Structure formats: C-alpha cells, structure tokens
Amino acid sequence: MSYTPHELLNHKLEHLPLNPGVYQFKDAKDTIIYVGKAKKLRNRVRSYFQESRHHTGKLRMLVAKIRDVETIITDSEAEALILENNLIKKHQPRYNVALKDDKSYPYICVTREERPRVFPTRTVVKNGSKYYGPYDHVGKMKHMLETIRKVFGLCTCACTPRSIDLNRGMPKWYSCFDDYFESCSADVPLEQYQDKMQKVVRLLNGNTGSLIRELKEEMQIAAQALAFEEAASLRDGIDALQKYSEKMKMVTNDEINRDVFAVYADREEAVACGVLFKIREGKLIGRHNKVLKNIEEVPDEELLQAFVEDYYTGDTAGIEPHEVHVSHDFEDAGPLMAYLSEQLGRKVRLVEPKIGEKAQLVKMAESNAKLLTADYVLQKKKAEKDFVPHSLKSLHRDLFLPRIPRRIECFDNSNLMGTDPVASMVCFVDAQPRKSEYKRFNIKTVEGPDDFASMKEVLTRRYSRVMREKQHIPDLIVVDGGKGQLSSAVEALQEIGFYGQVPVVGLAKRLEEIFLPGRADPVMIPKTSAALKLLQRVRDEAHRFAITFHRDKRSKRTFSSELESVPGIGAKTAQKLIREFGSVKKMREASLEELKEKAGVKTGQLLHDWFHGNNTD
Questions:
Q1: In this predicted model, which residue has the larger pLDDT, 282 or 370?
Q2: What is the helix (H) or strand (E) element at residue 190, kind and residue range?
Q3: Mean per-residue pLDDT for 328-349?
Q4: Which of the residues 364, 500, 533, 548 has the least number of beta carbons within 10 Å of its own beta carbon?
C-alpha cells in the first residue's frame, strides 16, 4: 500500500516516540528547514500541527512548508541540546535563528596531545583541541600569551615538530626570538610539563587568584630547600601574573565565576546581537558577541536562549561558571542546566537578576548588545548601494534641495596679494571625498586679487566643459564665500546656460552662514547639524587643496627665478629642471655626473660651476 506525502506525514506524527530527542522538518525538496529539540518528541512535534490560531505568521509559514519529519532519539535532554546545535550549524535551516560571528576572532589553542602546545589562532579546528577566547582585541590575546611564557616558561608560538629545521634545531621561518628558543627546546620532564599545562588552563579560565597563592607556596618551599634559582624563577612568574591580574577590571565584590548574557533585537532591521561577559574571580576577563539573524517574530527570550545554547555547545566555551546570569528568563532551561552540570560535575545556577550590581552587569551587557546591533546595521547599510547617509538627508531637507545631493562639487580660490592665483574643486560622493575627481585651476584671465572674478572664471571653465563633454553633473555646487562669490557663480552659470540645472550655494566662514540665490537672508543651520558638518568638511577640503596647490606653484616660481639667474638658463629650462629634480636644494647636493645625466652635459656643467663657486662671471 502506497501513501501520499500528506498521509505519510500524518502516519509519522501518530507514531512518534515519547523519548527526548531532536526533530527535523523537511520541505517538498527534502531540504531541512527547521531543527528543534524536545523532552517528549511526540508532544512537541504534534503541537505544530494542532490549532494554529495562536501561531505567529512565521510559524504558520513553516508548518505550511513541512512535508516530512525525521526524529533522532537521545538518552537525555542534554544530549538533545548538543545534537540540535550541531545539526543547526551543519544544515543552517531557513527557519532557525542564525548565529554568525561578525568577524574572525583570535583564540588561544591548547592542543590535545601528551605534551600540549599553546599558540594563537583565528581558525577553530574540531580535532579535540581546546580553544580559549575569543579575545575582542588581538593585543589582549598577545598579553595573555606573553604572561604564559613568562610565568611557566612555555613556548607560545605556532611552532610544530614539522616546522623545525633539524640541522639548526629551530623554526624554519626565523620568527622566534632568542628567549623563545629556550622555551621551544627546554627538556622539561613530561609530568612537570603536564602540571604546567594544568596551571595554564586555569590561567586561561581566569582563575588567577588561586594560582598566585599556589605559586607563592611553591616559592616558599623552594626557598626553604635552598633551591634559590627555582624560587627566583617562581618569583618572577608571580610578578608577571600579578601585573596581568591588576589590569583586569574588577566588576563584583565576590570571587564567584559568572557568565553574563544579554541580547538586543532591532525589529525594524530584523537583526539582533547577543553579548557575553566572562567574569572570573570578580574580574571581567573577556567579551564575546554574535549576530543573530532570521529573528522575525522570535521573542527576545528565545533569541537569548539560542545564543547561550550555541555558545556552551560550541568548541570555544571554556565552561567554568558557578552562575549564569541572563537578561531574559528562558522558557525551558532544563536541557542547558543539565548539560552544564554534566560538564562541570556540579550544579550551575541560572539567574535573571533584578536589582543590585548583578542587575547592573546585565544592563551593561544589554547596552553593549544595543551598540553592536546599531553598528552592524550601519555597516550593512553602508554596503548597500542605495544607502543614503543621514547628513545628505539633512542637507536635502535644510536647503530645500530638489534631490538628495549625493554628488557635491565645491570651489575655493587662493592667492597671495594677487600673485600666483589658483583655484580648486573637490568632489564628495555619498558624503565621502572622491580624490580621483579633484581639479586644479590656474587663473588665466584675472589680474590682481579679485576672488569674485576668479570664481566666475573657474565655474565658467568647469561647467562649459561638463556640458561640452556631457560629463556627470553634480547634485549641488558649493562655493567658499558669501553673497559676492555666490553672485559671481550664478552669473557664470547663467552666461553659459547651465544655471537651473544644479542648485548652487555659498558658505561664508565667519558665521557659517549659507546663502542661496534669490534670498536676501542666509539660511542658518544648527551648529550640531550633520548637514552643516558635512558642508564644513567639503569647504575645508577645498580650502586645503587650493592652499596646497598655491604653495606648490609659488615654490616652483621662486625656484625658477633663482635658476634663471644662472647664465645660460632661461625660464623654460628652469621649469624643466625643477620638474626633474624637485627642488634647487637637490640640484645643489647632486654630483657633477648626476647633473650631466639629468640636465645634459653643458647645462649640468653650468649648474655645478654656479653652485660650487666656479663661475667666472
């Protein structure tokens, strides 16, 4: 007798076991779309297909796509928890909350060998090794590795037997320093080595207080036995350990080991972030966070539980807490607590603190989660092509512009008492400078220090070429100055028939007033406005670019004038020499051979004689 897919599913639902285990829902393409765990598989799975009026929209959509269910029986809820998380990581089901690291964090690896190695890594390999971290800053990880080396005399580089040059007895890539060689080649007895590694693990887990007390006892015993060298070594190790411990931030008055978890969800952007604070002996030793996706209609407490379970069932947990503090209570914490108790051999408390310093720690974790979520959303939007910075939206609103000014071109003049007049144009796209489109202008038609006429010339040249070559036109033109510069800009655009195609404004520096064509009074934008800050950035960049160009031009003119005093060298030759050597100083310092090679035999000899006092004129 053959069954239809619907009849086969109903048959499976009727014969599900009451054991604990994991269930997997599949769609019509036999793709796993959801993985869950249950204390009693039959009751949990069948609840999905019962009265759906209390189901969320997301859950109704999931149920509508289910065509098959597979179950795996486990001996306990703790085993179901581990299996569930492994299957989620393997299959990445569409309707499960997705947990992703926002970057590749650094870890410290302790290998699973008779003589374990300790080294830094960003890659977690499932080979039985233990990974401690993650460290939110690589400097903290390096500090920990250096402390391990100083306290226990162990090598902490990623050196393996395969990487040793047998002829030299050291790593092939020359990356270890001399003091590391001693650690690499130290012939420490196996039992003593393993004892050191146990202490290293305690240090990595944050148990510095008890470790310092134990090392002090060993130092006293060594001193009483007149083993002064060993006692001195222990003393130095204790000093290094105390310095490390002092840098850790004390956050609680007791010495209970705690893990503090919190989550924050941005429902509008459909993304959340979970944060963990690791507190050992009252000190904050590290922070860990993950981004959570697929969170539509998933309550905060479920998001937090997914984050906590994912962490403790992963390869980098470093389980040590006596208490687990959470920002939201779990619906069913039984499997997780059973798993932690099995791992540690003792009971672990799950607490949702409401008052006191514990509640403040949870709030601090929540604040961190909120900031990280906002940062993730911002970075995501920046990567999207249609993302418009807030400053551009503000500028669009405050200046009554016809469109968002995604491309802004700004102009400024520069001269010294009318000499060497130049102008600059800078281009900003999406509120960021695009230096490849910056322009420099030598003023050609203006005599003397006339900023208004210079501005008119530059805009005439720039936008005549834009129209002639059909280049991309900006969304906003900004001129540095008040009514006079703006009037000159408007006049130039009117004469070439470009006025009206692009809004043009003037930004006066004295009071940061913004002038618009046809308006007698300036527009005053609040000093703290993102729009004004953007205009100031654009104006200041145009000013910097113009000043730099003016100084370069003036320097070259000065150098050219000095060279023209050399008999036999004219203005064109002087300019050519400046381009070749860069400055008169470099010519003066050059040898006769170098001068002849770059300037020619005759000119080179003239320069050498002039600079070194051999001229007869």
A1: 370
A2: helix 190-204
A3: 84
A4: 500
Residues in the chain: 617
Give the residue ranges of DSSP H helices in 426-581.
451-469, 483-495, 530-564, 571-581
Residue appearing with tokens 């992963």: 314
pTM over 0.85: no
- Per DSSP, the chain holds a count of helices (H) and strands (E) of 20, 22
Confidence at residue 177, expressed as pLDDT on a 0 to 100 scale: 45
Contacts of 293 (CB under 8 A, 6+ apart): 97, 98, 100, 270, 271
pLDDT digit string, tens, across residues 490-548? 999 999 999 999 999 999 877 788 999 988 888 888 877 888 889 999 999 998 888 88
The amino acid occupying position 503 is P
Q: Tell me the per-residue pLDDT of 49-97, one tens digit each, with 9 for 90 and over.
A: 876 656 666 788 888 888 888 888 888 888 888 888 888 888 888 888 8
Is the pLDDT reported for residue 165 higher than 60?
Answer: no
CB of 113 closer than 8 Å to CB of 129 = no
* The pLDDT of residue 231 is above 90: no
Q: How many Å apart are CA 492 and CA 484, to the nearest integer?
A: 12
Look at residue 136 in the predicted model and tell me its pLDDT. Answer: 66
pLDDT top residue among 200 and 542: 542
Residue 234: CB atoms within 10 Å: 21
Closest to 563 (Cα-Cα) out of 529, 595, 531, 610: 610
Sign of the torsion angle spanned by Cα atoms 214, 220, 222, 228:
positive
pLDDT in tens, 552-571: 766 555 544 556 556 666 66
Distance from the first to the final alpha carbon of the chain: 119
Question: In b/e form, how buried is each residue of 325-355, taking b as 16+ CB within 10 angstroms?
Answer: bbbbebeebebbbbbbeeeeeeebebeebee
DSSP output for 324-392: EEESS--S--HHHHHHHHHHHTS--EEE---SHHHHHHHHHHHHHHHHHHHHHHHHHHHHSTT---HHH
Between helices 601-611 and 571-581, what is the axis angle to 10°? 80
Residue with tokens 């320097």: 555
Contact 540, 410 (CB under 8 A): no
Phi, then psi, of 475 in degrees rounded to 5: -95, -15
- Contact criterion met (CB below 8 Å) for 261 and 327: yes
Give the closest residue to 322 by CA, choosing from 206, 200, 148, 204.
206
Report which secondary-structure segment, H or E, holds 212.
helix 208-224
Closest CA to 480 of 514, 508, 449: 508
